[in-house]
Write a structure and sequence with these properties.
The complex is a heterodimer. By secondary structure, chain A is of the alpha+beta class. Helix content of chain A is 29%, strand content 24%. In chain A, strands 3-5-1-12-9-10-11 form a 7-stranded mixed β-sheet. A 5-stranded mixed β-sheet of chain A has the order 7-15-14-13-8. In chain A, strands 18-26-27-28 form a 4-stranded mixed β-sheet, with helices on both faces. In chain A, helix 10 packs parallel to helix 18 (707-724). By secondary structure, chain B is α+β, with helices and mostly antiparallel strands. Chain B is 30% helix and 15% strand. Chain B has a 5-stranded mixed β-sheet with strand order 2-1-5-3-4, sandwiched between helices. The radius of gyration of chain B is 15 Å and the shape is elongated. The chains are: A alpha+beta, B alpha+beta. Chains A and B meet through helix 1 and helix 17 of A and helix 1, helix 2, helix 3, helix 4 and helix 5 of B.
Chain lengths: 751, 156
């Protein structure tokens, strides 16, 4: 029986649970002995001119090895988007948390003492602390550009005639609030220049190879002069893609000091200085017939890009995925990205797709509520039917496979939807102050949407062991175990003879890494392709050894041996015997997989909440989910990815939000203030299986890393609104905290 | 000041600055890096260890306060190559970890929870681990791991 599709505990775990792994701050490598410790002095003001920086006192503090500001660096410009982000603030600070100076000391505990002595003269400027303030344009972050709008895409002007002929038109502005990715491991890095002039950088990153290219470029050295190693990485969620600007400054400082440097930020730094996610203000307009058929849909996206736009694909990806799972005849989208005096925005689990899904799934519920129809029925009336696939959406996405109605039906059946609706009605009739709310979200998302491929290499050694190198860069997903399972299945080699390596640019020079749920479909397919190439090599070698035609040989994967087809009792060759005869001492294949085709996982979620209308408190009671990402390699980790996605997605709907006051001061800058979801706020998850393959890669798989995040946020959000719907509430923004629920109820009851 | 702590059964004595936190004593002085630092407000629990058998967040205890006491970290539950502790085994079997960063603290908090409540319900586990944050698992499998370690059947 194939190991693929069976529940396999992870190979990664043993070290993590006994020795705690080796994260970047755990490194005790010889190359880092005597390393200086580093801390960034960061702006405490959202927008200010820097009148001057006096580092003299700091330089004289105990243990200080160096204090550097923008004036010291002499690095080339930061290759970024429409405006230039300085490596260290140069003349102006534009968000609280922006790095202004770097302090290096002998001992870790000397850092804070010395950093406090860096005297920065800030001359405050008016702050642009919201999308509204950015659009007002009274204060500009970059006066030379003449506007806070840094990117415009889609229609310049909307055409209202698309809603002519609609019996009902509903419009709503929906905030998709700013949240903090907050991986448990904050950012950290270590740098050591060798005597050979090569830099080794240990980075907590999702993409060692991208980081290598970035560092080489910014430090002005060739790529061959930089080695990046991603050790164990304590979560990324999109916020550890590549290398952040701090890495360049630290790499420069290590060279300047002539000694290694190690850096780890604090959590409070992390919450203002690591990129945030989401931060869109979306206006939906949906029109159609009274029977629930949608005739036209419009999505107007405004992306808060933060002070330095780093990831401007987010709003356009939201446009691309605007229609979700629906066959809307007419669609209009546009997006604008604005700069504000806040932490830069970048990818966070889902990155552009959760925002599209939240918008269209709220729109469907608003439309259903306006019509007085069940939201499940309205969705069914508008799904793209299975016979329409592959399906090109009006916004240009090319969906591979989808069974959207089946996914919703499975979820509703598993949840007991009809009984839940009856229970809701009973409570309402009884005047129960605790309302029951049911929220549906049907979703489709895009994985491997970056248009690139991935590398994979497989070696089989004369001792019969298999070593594989993947360009993917797992950091908690358990991909190593999944890849080993794929190899075991294909080669007939037991798991304990297979090692999967990744994350070192000297071992894997060419790769893209992990983001956008791309790893199994691209990295996994690359490993499969490399395995097949090794099998082809082995077939020829074994044919020579067995004096048979290559076509007459077969690999018996049950036993992991080569034999003549139809003659299992004849002489067999082990992998070791075949590998021994390989010309360069081992069988090896090094491939690149991928023609840039993305896949489109989909699913449906139902959330059940109880809302205490006397206190505004929301309790998430159940969440039932179908997340269809094609065939499953390891159900254990597949379910784990869904669990994690459900937790983060529900957290956005219920609790989490990064906030600023009107002067741009962050008010959620520590874990004591930021409502990071805990075990006590989440229910057990109810997962329903469904697996619809794609034809766009060798494994038939789609990505699962982000899917459940995308579905769960609008499901939970819709459930809260549904609970309040009988009390005059048609919408409230996330997070649905008690104060907001209570305010919405007060307003709803007044109407 | 001179601090002596018995860490995982091994005495560790060192002259350290007065303000040294227990977590830094464990990581830098004792060389045991499994115990992680995830925040600076005693919120995340990644640094949870046992101090004389009781769970504490070692980022909020001075090494000096632990002077003369016993500390157990996740490295002390089992040898790297030896048999796993029940709770470690359950975290692996139930996929109660992904990136692993919260895991040492989560395991130590779970050991402490089970010492207080050997047969907890799932809701009791959730309440008991509220001070330990995980970003990867959505907590479902962490709860299952603690139930499993308690000898109860995991039914979801």
């Amino acid at each position: 029986m194939s190991i693929v599709g069976t529940r396999v505990v992870r190979q990664e775990d043993r070290n993590l649970i006994t020795a705690g792994g080796t994260y970047v701050d755990d490194l005790r490598a010889e190359a880092l002995s005597g390393a200086a410790h580093a801390v960034f002095v960061r702006s405490p003001i959202a927008h200010a001119r820097i009148g001057g920086i006096d580092v003299s006192e700091a330089k004289a503090a105990p243990g200080v090895l160096g204090v550097f500001t923008a004036a010291d660096l002499g690095l080339g410009p930061h290759p970024a988007g429409p405006v230039e982000e300085p490596w260290l603030a140069d003349g102006v600070v534009r968000y609280v948390g922006e790095p202004v100076a770097l302090v290096l000391t002998e001992e870790r505990y000397q850092l804070a003492d010395a950093a406090e002595l860096v005297d920065v003269d800030y001359e405050p400027l008016d702050a642009v602390a919201s999308i509204g303030a950015a659009l007002d344009g009274e204060t500009l972050l970059y006066p030379a550009t003449g506007s806070n709008i840094v990117q415009v895409n889609g229609m310049a002007e909307f055409d209202d005639s698309i809603f002519e002929g609609c019996e009902v038109v509903v419009t709503q502005t929906i905030a998709n609030q700013r949240v903090a990715p907050a991986p448990l491991e904050v950012r950290g890095a270590s740098f050591a220049w060798g005597e050979d002039g090569r830099l080794t950088a240990w980075l907590s990153t999702q993409n060692a190879q991208i980081a290598r290219s970035q560092l080489a470029g910014s430090l002005g050295v060739g790529e061959e002069s930089v080695r990046v190693i991603a050790p164990d990485v304590g979560g990324g969620f999109g916020a550890k893609i590549g290398a952040d600007p701090e890495a360049t400054v630290l790499g420069w400082a290590a060279k300047r000091l002539g000694r290694p440097v190690r850096w780890v930020e604090s959590r409070s730094e992390n919450l203002t200085s690591m990129t945030h996610g989401r931060a869109q203000l979306n206006t939906v307009t949906i029109g159609g017939k009274r029977d629930g058929t949608v005739l036209a849909y419009r999505l107007d996206v405004i992306q808060d890009a933060g002070a330095y736009p780093r990831t401007l694909f987010l709003p356009t990806l939201t446009e691309l995925m605007a229609v979700g799972v629906y066959r809307f005849p007419v669609v209009q989208t546009r997006s604008r990205a604005v700069v504000t005096n806040t932490t830069p925005i970048a990818a966070y689990r889902g990155a552009g797709r959760p925002e599209a899904t939240a918008a269209v799934e709220r729109a469907m519920d608003l439309f259903a509520a306006e019509l007085g129809l069940d939201p499940a029925d309205v969705r069914r009336a508008n799904f793209i039917p299975p016979e329409d696939f592959p399906y090109r959406t009006p916004t240009g996405a090319f969906y591979d496979t989808g069974e959207y109605a089946a996914a919703l039906d499975k979820v509703l059946e598993a949840a007991g939807y009809a009984e839940l609706r009856a229970e809701q009605q009973r409570r309402r009739e009884a005047g129960d102050p605790v309302e029951l709310g049911l929220g549906i979200a049907a979703y489709v998302e895009i994985t491997g949407g970056d248009g690139g491929g991935e590398s994979g290499r497989v070696d089989i050694h004369p001792d019969g062991s298999v070593v594989a190198w993947t360009g993917s860069s797992p950091h908690g997903q358990g991909l190593g175990t999944s890849l080993a399972m794929l190899l075991s299945d294909r080669l007939g080699v037991p798991l304990d003879r297979i090692t999967v390596r990744h994350g070192d640019t000297d071992e894997v020079p060419k790769a893209i890494g992990t983001f956008g749920s791309r790893s199994l479909q691209l990295g996994g397919s690359a490993i499969r392709q490399a395995a097949d190439e090794v099998i082809a090599q082995a077939r020829d070698l074994a044919a020579d050894l067995l004096e048979a035609a290559p076509d007459d040989l077969e690999l018996d994967v049950e036993r992991g041996v080569w034999q003549v087809r139809g003659a299992p009792s004849s002489t067999v060759l082990s992998w070791a015997q075949v590998a021994e005869t390989a010309s360069d001492g081992k069988l090896t294949a090094d491939v690149w997989f991928g023609d840039g085709s993305p896949t489109f996982p989909f699913g449906a979620h139902l959330a059940v909440v109880e809302v205490d209308t006397e206190t505004g408190k929301v309790e998430l009671r159940r969440i039932v989910a179908v997340d269809d990402a094609g065939p499953i390699v390891n159900p254990l980790t597949f379910r784990g990815q869904r669990h994690g996605g459900l937790g983060q997605g529900a957290a956005q709907a219920l609790l989490e939000v990064v906030t600023y006051d009107e002067d741009g001061n962050p008010t959620t800058a520590s874990l004591a203030d930021y409502s990071f979801v805990t075990a006590a706020e989440l229910p057990d998850f109810e997962l329903v299986d469904m697996a619809t393959p794609t034809d766009r890669n060798l494994l038939g798989v789609k990505g699962i890393g982000e899917a459940a995040t995308i579905g769960s946020t609008p499901a939970v959000h819709n459930a809260v609104v549904d609970a309040l719907s009988a009390r005059g509430v048609r919408h409230l923004d996330m997070p649905t905290t008690p104060i907001r629920v209570w305010a919405a109820l007060s307003e709803g009851n007044a109407q | 000041m001179k601090v002596s702590i018995e860490v995982n059964g091994r005495p560790v004595t060192e002259e350290v600055p007065d303000r040294t936190l227990l977590v830094h004593f464990l990581r830098d002085t004792a060389g045991l890096t499994a115990t992680n630092i995830g925040c600076d407000t005693t919120s995340c629990g990644a640094c949870t260890v046992l101090l004389d058998g009781e769970s504490v967040k070692s980022c909020t205890v001075l090494a000096a306060q632990a002077d003369g006491h016993e500390v157990t970290t996740v490295e002390g539950l089992s040898a790297v190559d030896g048999d796993l502790h029940l709770v470690q085994r359950a975290f692996r079997e139930q996929h109660g970890l992904q990136c692993g960063f919260c895991t040492p603290g989560m395991i130590m908090a779970s050991v402490s929870l089970l010492a207080d409540n050997p047969k907890p319900t799932r809701d009791e586990v959730r309440a008991g681990l509220e001070g330990n944050l995980c970003r990867c698992t959505g907590y479902h499998n962490i709860v299952s791991a603690v139930i499993d370690a308690s000898g109860q059947e995991v039914d979801r």
